[in-house]
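=== Structural record ===
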Amino acid sequence: MLKEMGRTSQAVLVILYGFMTVKAFEMEIIPANRIVKQVGETLRLTCNTTGCASPSFSWRTQMDNPLGGTVNNYRTYSTLTMNPVSTVNSHDYLCTVFCGEKEKKEKSVKVEIYSFPRDPVIEISPSSAAAEPVTVTCKILDVYPSHYLEVLLKKGDHVLHEKNFYEDESTNTENKTVTYSFNPTAEDIGKEITCVAKLPIPDMDFEPKERVTSEKLTANFGPQNTVITASPGNWPMEGDTLNLTCVTESNPPAQIVWTKHLADESIQLLTRNNVLSIPDARFSDSGLYTCEVTNVVTNKTEKATVDIVIRGAPDITKLSIEPSTTVREGENVSILCSAEGNPSPRIILRRKSDGADTGPYSEGRILLPSVTFLNGGDYECVAENEFGKSRSEITLNVEYGPKNTVISVIPATAVKEGETVIMKCTSSGNPAPVISWKKKKTTGEPEKIYTDATLTIKNIKSQDLGLYECEAYNRFGKEEKDVKLLVQVPPQNITVLVYPSENVKEGENITITCSAYSNPPSEMVLKKLHQQKEIILPSVNGTFILYNVTKNDTGRYLLDVFNEVGNNITVIEIAVVERLEKPDQMIPLIIAFSSVTAVAVPAVAILIYVTRKAKINGSYSLVKALGLKV
């Protein structure tokens, strides 16, 4: 009996102990205290429970704003993750936990957000010399909340400018700019310009709350003392890595451009860095390199050059004839010899029979436009430098048509009527060209007149003048040459017009117009025979004008028309009558009207007449008059 009572007591104690060890329903938020986070960081809130096997969780903000994060529920805890944190996460977050239908617990935690991620950025524009105004700009990027921001601009220990943004009401990060302009003195050059940005948010624990950036006030200069260094040197071996470094003194830093002078005198743009790197240098990398540095503020440019030679023994890599080693005369032929070497080898490309450089050639190339049989033969290429010599040969075979066609004229291309002219045409070619003569008709079309190398014209006449063409032809082509034959004729068919007449009154003008046929064109001179001297008047295209004549102009005039073949003289008698002393008042008007009519009507008649005569070679027309010459 006692044993049974003891066992019962033990069971009761076990049950009571079990009730005593069951935990009560509790919750907590981790972290539990006030949270301060910077925009862009990650924040994870954990709502943890004990004493409840299957809790349910609910997250919200104090003002029921969006959570701005993601919620993940697990068995006994829930997480709210904000990644990244932004200004929308500045709230009191409340976690509510239900355990069954009757038990409910909730807790909140305050999240405060700020943004002060980097030091200020200072710009001094322009960075100039003393006595020139400068503008200092301080930029504070991505700051929040900006209404706590305070900014100081300092020159050394002296405060230049202060600014705060207490009135800002931004709800997001902002970029803030503070600008200040002043005229620096010579003593200011080299001093520190400092921007101090502070974000003293009350009751918020974060660091740093103050950020500082400084920059020296410097003067613009340069570029100057620009030099190029070459590594491993100006004479690297083939296969080396060549580094060309351009160093200059400039403020602000200069813009750098590398160029190379090519063989055709053009400029190749390489890079815009201060270091030009050429890995595995080849012979083609030899040349003149230029580093051009420009300061866009001072608007100055400076250049430095370096001559690079890649060393190596010469080797002929190619010797060819294009389009083929056998060509027809008239084709364009290119003989190419390529060689590599260091220093650059001297390439001699020549025909062996000449025994000298043929030229012109460039970098081992001979261009033979419209090749002739004279260009045929064996060609030799020799590449040579201080380390050795290389040699190779190739043969050019030329088939050719007529070439070097020449016309000779005896006695000359300009002859007098009645003479005999012999025109001979010669041409080289293979096979020998057939020669024929043509003369161009007035229509411009050629007319075949003779088939032989020599064309003879006896007792030549003016109708024999014209353009004669010699054609040399064989199966490979033809070549034409022409010559212009001139038949010289002395002045003839002379026509002289005197306007208004040979008898005029004092004060009138006399116009003398002369036309003639001749070849070559005639010259004309009007001479007046005088007691003491001979007065000579030159013409302008066959026209002479005596202005405002007097009685002294009365006399005999000789009109001499001449060319290198002959001349013709015409005598003109001019008589000038004295005017009346007191003319009627209406006479001036009548004279003026008559003068205009007298000049206009004959002038039109003369113009028509001279225009018709101008169709004859050597004739003249009415033009401006020259002044009197003695």
